[in-house]
Amino acid sequence: MTSSGPAAVCIDWGTSSFRAYLVKADGTILERSESARGILTVARGEHEALLAGIIGGWLSGGALRIVMSGMIGSRQGWLEAPYAPCPAGLQEIGASMATIETRTLGAIGLVPGVSTFDRDGSPDVMRGEETQILGALAAMNRADGIFVLPGTHSKWARVEAGRITSFSTYMTGEVFAALKDHTILGRSMEAASEDNSAFAEGVRAAARLERPGDMLHAIFMTRTLGLFDRLRPGQLSDYLSGLLIGAELLSGAEGAQEAIVIGSPALTARYCAAGEVLGMTLQPSPEDCAPLGQLALLAHWRG
Amino acid sequence: MTSSGPAAVCIDWGTSSFRAYLVKADGTILERSESARGILTVARGEHEALLAGIIGGWLSGGALRIVMSGMIGSRQGWLEAPYAPCPAGLQEIGASMATIETRTLGAIGLVPGVSTFDRDGSPDVMRGEETQILGALAAMNRADGIFVLPGTHSKWARVEAGRITSFSTYMTGEVFAALKDHTILGRSMEAASEDNSAFAEGVRAAARLERPGDMLHAIFMTRTLGLFDRLRPGQLSDYLSGLLIGAELLSGAEGAQEAIVIGSPALTARYCAAGEVLGMTLQPSPEDCAPLGQLALLAHWRG
Fold first, then answer.
1. Which residues of B touch A252 (CB under 8 A)?
2. Are A123 and B179 an interchain contact pair (Cβ–Cβ within 8 Å)?
3. Which of A39, A109, A161, B192 has its CA 20 to 30 A from that of A216?
4. Which residues in chain B have Cβ-Cβ distances shorter than 8 Å to A219?
5. What ipTM was reported for this prediction?
6. Closest chain B residue to A119 measured between Cα atoms?
7. Is B220 in contact with A247 (Cβ distance < 8 A)?
8. Would an 8 Å CB–CB cutoff place B232 in contact with chain A?
9. pTM score above 0.90
């Protein structure tokens, strides 16, 4: 294998999505395959056949190392890989990798998730985001920082000397969807193109809140501001989004003024816009951090 | 009509429930009728026939004054009665009552809702709760206090010199249902008899939160405490309930140590229990406050 040839197959297998990358040793992506075949769509015992069907062609030129991260390593996935506790960096996470021996694809490295306990002793977990963070550190040549990975379950992670020292999950995306689709708030909403001013107004409203329970009151303003014609039906969804994301930023950053965002371009832009309203500097990471993190972890895999 | 005879028909007609009371002038309830015929189940133009069918028998002995409160006075109800703005007591709300002239039931008094604006100028509204508060004031012989009406949309109202001076809506009940039925949190929950210790643990967790956005993180603990076997599947629902109600209490009371609860016995007991954990004294109001408030308002009706 020359240095310009493929070195590994990197797979980010989440709850609702599947992404595979054929990569060179320096992280260059040669080919990619994405689908909605998340772990929830795959029955026990069918993972190997599905995977072979997708990446089999990439392996025809010779065996490649294969590494997976994400919810595929959870109890609902292929094999449960126990969490590596914080603080956790390349060494700790790499040493905790599990190995799946397959008949048709050889040994597959499985990245574990990471666990932490907050100051009250309450546990928190991530699976997949740790690999993206490690990839972002490699791509940005950094060893420290605050990282936010927005989404259904947003993660805010603190990294010191290359290790994730603590993190918190925020159910922002899922709460937004539940409020919009399953409460009275959605009834007055109308679909419209993105309204940046309504979003910014929601972010500013979040900044005015004081107590944790104020959120349960503030979200109701999405209804009353519509009732009193202060917001149009097409603005209500963006207002609610700004309210929730603004509150997440102010809580997740814990007073810090800078963070790095790892996420889809659209969601990253939204978080950066919210940060701007709040006087925070949110910097997008390079794209495709997962395979970069997986490549770095492969060097520590004992499989 | 003697003082021991019926004096009025009082109707509390909400979004999802209908309650009618045949009452004496002193508020004694002679008969009652309750059903699930909330306003969402009644088509425009059918309110009078439905009402006549339910209370017609009570009127056979002679005409009685009829008064209604609740969402029946909203845009989605029978007739929209414009909100009376805070501060609002018997005089202001009574003077703002609308009148519905009917063919078969005569004139019906319609209690308006009440509106307020918080210090940021954001509007809030109630319809029906103002009447219950006025009834509680009459029943308890009070003119001041903080009142909480727990439910789908909990209301926290401040009363001074017999007038509601301000109030806030908390979407606690609806948020709880949306989180339980439409997010990952519900997946690990199992039905069980009420668990007071898990509820109290949720209330204590709410008291440890600091920032508004912390709620978006704290609710995720309902999942991780289950994942780490700190709570049993049958305890998770009560933990989440305690977390939300505890946060509501700490925000709604705004530092006050005492409040009066107007609600169903079960929900009132829950709020009182949460208050106890937080060192607050929550006192239940007498039951059936709505007809008492309606009777008091009838004296101010210009219909």
1. 213, 217
2. no
3. B192
4. 171, 175
5. 0.93
6. B208
7. no
8. no
9. yes
Q: How many CB pairs under 8 A join A and B?
A: 156
Q: Is residue B87 reached through a cis peptide bond, with omega within 30 degrees of 0 on the bond before it?
A: yes
Around B49, how many Cα atoms within 13 Å sit in the side-chain half-sphere?
5
Return the percent helix, strand and coil in chain A, to nearest 5. 40, 25, 35
Q: Residue type for B210, please? A: E
Give the pLDDT of chain A (303 residues) as one tens digit per residue: 455 799 999 999 998 899 999 999 999 999 999 999 999 999 999 999 999 999 999 998 888 999 999 999 998 899 999 999 999 999 999 999 999 999 999 999 999 999 999 988 899 999 999 999 999 999 999 999 999 999 999 999 999 999 999 999 999 999 999 999 999 999 889 988 888 999 999 999 999 999 999 999 999 999 999 999 999 999 999 999 999 999 999 999 999 999 999 999 999 999 999 999 999 999 999 999 999 999 999 999 987
Cβ-Cβ contacts under 8 Å, A120 against chain B: 205, 208
Q: Is A214 touching B (CB cutoff 8 A)?
A: yes
Question: Which domains, ranges and CATH numbers included, belong to chain B?
Answer: 6-141+291-298 (3.30.420.300), 170-284 (3.30.420.310)
With CB atoms and an 8 Å threshold, state whether A251 touches B175: no
- Chain A CB contacts of B218 below 8 Å: 212
| A184–B contact, CB cutoff 8 A | yes
The minimum CA-CA distance between A106 and chain B, rounded to whole Å, is: 31
